[in-house]
TrEMBL record:
Domain CSC1/OSCA1-like 7TM region: 362-632
InterPro entries listed in its UniProt record: Csc1-like, CSC1/OSCA1-like_7TM, CSC1/OSCA1-like_cyt, CSC1/OSCA1-like_N
Identification of the protein by name: CSC1-like protein ERD4
Membrane disposition: Multi-pass membrane protein
Gene Ontology molecular function, alphabetical: calcium-activated cation channel activity
GO CC terms in record: plasma membrane
Record-stated family: Belongs to the CSC1 (TC 1.A.17) family.
């Protein structure tokens, strides 16, 4: 990539970001768009424009995001969202503090050396000999064996020490944040329950429910309340889903009749386009009555005959529940497996019945599938990375030669083509990785998100970062590795500088275009207005059309981690990338804070359990950075590169110490947290009912004795499912 192409890419991206930001300012003030830009506030019965437009200043949203406290974030968007912002601010702090020393020190040292002028060794240039302007301020311009390399070695130590300090501080803060939330004086249903799996077969004469009750009543005679046994719900779920669908169609038909005074009709055959034509209101009313009868019959059958080997067990106080979740209840590891109960809304019911050893086998099988996927996905990514350079593109597609010779088109293609191709490839993965994670037998959505996030992170690092880095000189690298397989660190370190400009442009594209689209919400806005005008007939359908979902941690966190890894690994080799890293995480903190306060609605609450995984992956990125710098200093023939070995060991020790000190508090609820007093005595029956699956709850309004938790849970889930 030429210097002009880089500047064009940067300038164009910045211009598009400014356009999108002003577009957001204009569109978000229009009353017809309020449900797109303020859905979180609408759902909480708050004034959408409170504080935002008390002034005509178009940047009022920035002031609001900057002045909002962490407790406001917790109140509006939950602890998990607040923890995500701790992650963003921690990384922002790491790169800002690192920049204060590295930029004024390393840039002059690199700019005043003469390595590039004295040698034309292509393996030591940032952009394959074509991007000398940035080569001159990178480590590529440092002469081999130069004493200046001491400064680069010290810079590695500085970044590492800053990272240790910021991570330790953040871990303590998140631990306190989690404890404060769990100490809440409000009733949290899952704190009074445990999840029990791998329940053995009951003795003769006892039902599964009686067996479970007697087991826990013997152990906890004073505090055991009751149990909810898992049942095989596949058939009853299908009936319930059909019933809910018929209700929506009936509401739609009634809305059309009210608006037009004409009774709507539909055909009863495939997709409503073939078959007998009937009156829609009468037809769906009849189907609803039939489905309610079927549902009641199937519910009785399920509760009596289809009990499974898992249950939710309830206690009268949360100390006992916390104690039970941490205790060994059986001599055999594969029976009476007990963990903390997830939130009712995030339980993956179909996974609870999977047996202990089956879960282990599934887990290792999924790991193998992910490893194979990473290996084979690297092939198309490496191919795309290689072919999207203009030189190779002209060879692969000869008819492109006349087009590519046009200077403007050539510059645009060089600026965006490889980065866009990479982003498209990454967009195909998340759903597949989430499917694999759920297939492990994981009991809750938040746990599945953490598992999918981990897979996506390692996939991104191995395929995108390392894959693209090695693909730049693919055949030379394969030859080198074939001759000496142990040279992988040296090959990676040698290949890194050649791709610095690619990753500089990639990071810029992510924060300018990515966050510009995030803020402006152009895509959701267009889809909503199209649906509202042509498809939606009822208020429920309109609500489904604008419902925003959550922050999508399964893809957002790994995407941030990829930028973190890239910035770490290039922070000393090409220090200019630190500026891009600071902008990425600074803009991310600002824009996503606005979105968290006004747009996104959490689909679950795990009280910061994502943090230990985030912490581990930040350390993994730091470890990779240290290893790469050890290799690159070796390539520079700097004999004191061995001074980095103690630093690599220190990272492993730091990770071990953090895990031993903090992790248990995230794995379990500490008893000192659970023992705090509540505002009022918990309604145990309401807590119990909040865990009942939708398909097993009554559909008669007069039978809803405990509407609080049930109705809140059902309404929210209906919106989420839609």
């Amino acid at each position: 990539m030429e210097f002009e192409a880089f500047l064009l890419s940067l300038g164009t991206s910045a211009f598009i970001f400014l356009v999108l930001m002003f577009l957001f300012t204009w569109l978000s003030r229009r009353p017809g768009n309020v449900s797109i830009y303020y859905p979180n506030r609408i759902l909480k019965d708050m004034d959408p424009w409170e504080g935002s437009f008390s002034t005509r200043n178009p940047f009022a949203w920035i002031r609001e995001a900057l002045t909002t406290s962490e407790q406001d974030v917790v109140k509006l968007s939950g602890v998990d969202t607040a923890v995500y912002f701790v992650f963003l601010s921690t990384v922002l702090g790491i790169f800002t503090l690192s920049s204060l020393l590295i930029l004024p020190t390393l840039l002059p040292l690199a700019a005043t050396d003469t390595s590039i002028k004295n040698t034309r060794n292509a393996t030591d240039t940032t952009s394959k000999g074509t991007f000398s302007q940035l080569d001159n301020i990178s480590m590529a311009n440092i002469t081999r064996k130069s004493s200046r390399l001491w400064a680069f070695l010290v810079a590695v130590y500085w970044i590492s020490l800053v990272t240790y300090f910021m991570l330790w501080k953040a871990y303590k803060h998140v631990s306190t944040l989690r404890a404060q939330a769990l100490m809440s004086a409000d009733v949290i249903p899952e704190q009074f329950a445990i999840l029990v799996r791998d329940i053995p077969s009951p003795p003769n004469g006892l039902t599964q429910n009686e067996f479970i009750d007697s087991f826990f009543r013997d152990i906890y005679p004073e505090t055991f309340y009751r149990s909810l046994v898992l049942t095989e719900n596949s058939k009853v779920n299908k009936i319930w889903e059909n019933l809910e669908g018929y209700k929506k169609k009936l509401a739609r038909a009634e809305a059309i009749f009210a608006a037009t005074s004409n009774r709507p009709t539909n055909k009863t055959g495939l997709l409503g386009v073939v078959g007998k034509e009937v009156d829609s209101i009468e037809y769906y009313t009849e189907l609803i009555n039939e489905s309610v009868a079927k549902l009641e019959t199937e519910q009785k059958k399920v509760l009596a005959e289809k009990q499974q080997t898992a249950a939710i067990v309830f206690f009268t106080d949360r100390v006992t529940a916390a104690l039970a979740a941490q205790s060994l209840h059986s001599q055999m590891v594969d029976t009476w497996t007990v963990t903390e109960a997830p939130e009712p809304r995030q339980i993956i019911w179909e996974n609870l019945k999977i047996k202990f050893f089956s879960r282990l086998i599934r887990q290792y099988l999924i790991y193998f599938i992910v490893a194979v996927t990473i290996l084979f996905y690297m092939i198309p990514i490496a191919f795309v990375s290689a072919i999207t350079t203009l030189e190779n593109l002209q060879k692969a597609v000869p008819f492109m030669k006349p087009v590519v010779k046009i200077n403007f088109i050539r510059t645009v293609l060089e600026s965006y083509l490889p980065q866009i191709a990479l982003i498209v490839f990454l967009a195909m993965l998340p759903k597949f990785l989430m499917f694999l994670s759920k297939s492990e037998g994981i009991p809750s959505r938040s746990h599945a998100v953490r598992a999918a996030s981990g897979k996506y992170f390692y996939f991104s690092v191995l395929n995108v970062f390392i894959g693209v880095t090695l693909a730049g000189s693919l055949f030379d690298n394969l030859k080198a590795l074939q001759q000496k397989p142990s040279s992988i660190v040296t090959v990676l370190a040698t290949s890194l500088p050649k791709n610095a400009t690619f990753f500089l442009t990639y990071v810029a594209l992510k924060f300018f275009i990515g966050y510009g689209l995030e803020l402006s919400r152009i895509k959701p806005l267009i889809i909503f207005h199209l649906k509202k005008k042509y498809l939606c007939k009822t208020e429920a359908e309109v609500k489904e059309a604008w419902y925003p979902g959550d922050l999508s941690y399964a893809t957002r966190v790994p995407g941030d981690m990829l930028i973190l890894t890239i910035t770490f690994c290039y922070s000393v080799i090409a220090p200019l990338i630190l500026v891009f890293g600071v902008i990425y995480f600074g803009l991310g903190w600002l824009i996503l804070r606005n979105q968290a306060l006004k747009v996104y609605v959490p689909s679950y609450e795990s009280y910061g359990r994502m943090w230990p995984h985030i912490h581990t992956r930040i350390l993994a990125a730091l470890f990779l950075f240290q290893v790469v710098m050890f290799g690159y200093l070796g390539v520079k023939l700097f004999v004191w590169a061995t001074f980095l070995v103690p630093l690599i060991v220190a990272s492993l020790i730091f990770g071990y110490v953090c895990r031993r000190k903090f992790y248990s508090g995230f794995q379990h609820t500490a008893l000192e947290v659970a023992c705090r007093e509540l505002k009022q005595s918990p309604d145990l029956e309401e807590i119990f009912r909040s865990f009942i699956p939708h398909s097993l709850s009554t559909h008669k309004p007069e039978d809803h004795q405990f509407k609080g938790a049930m109705s809140r849970y059902q309404d929210y889930a209906a919106i989420s499912a839609a």
